[in-house]
């Protein structure tokens, strides 16, 4: 009985060590970009380290069909919002921990969606039914909202 509890405790303690981290640069070369533009294979407990290298941006979950109006706080269960990161004093870092292995779409909230309209988008676990390329096209074609 004690052995089983010990094994369960050791296994639970090892779980954080098994989590993966995905590095994403935000605003590379002073552009409206996330690099890379998508990641796959991310699961609950994994982290994404967003390194903001230029301007003032966010990484905020949004919807596939209406990407350029991401709400403050992020969209949906497991959604997130890094908040604005102004890099005038140097690079800024935000680390988020994924709550699930679902597909999430991300855009920058800056300038009422103007950065998103310029293609500043990112996808977590895109699928064959909802690809990153389609999400980007939705952002480029999304009507400007006042």
TrEMBL record:
The keyword ATP-binding does not apply. It comes from the Eukaryota. Keywords: Signal. Residues 1-19 form the signal peptide. PANTHER family: EXTRACELLULAR SERINE-RICH PROTEIN (PTHR34883:SF15), SERINE-RICH PROTEIN, PUTATIVE-RELATED-RELATED (PTHR34883). This is Extracellular serine-rich protein. The lineage of its organism: Eukaryota, Fungi, Dikarya, Basidiomycota, Agaricomycotina.
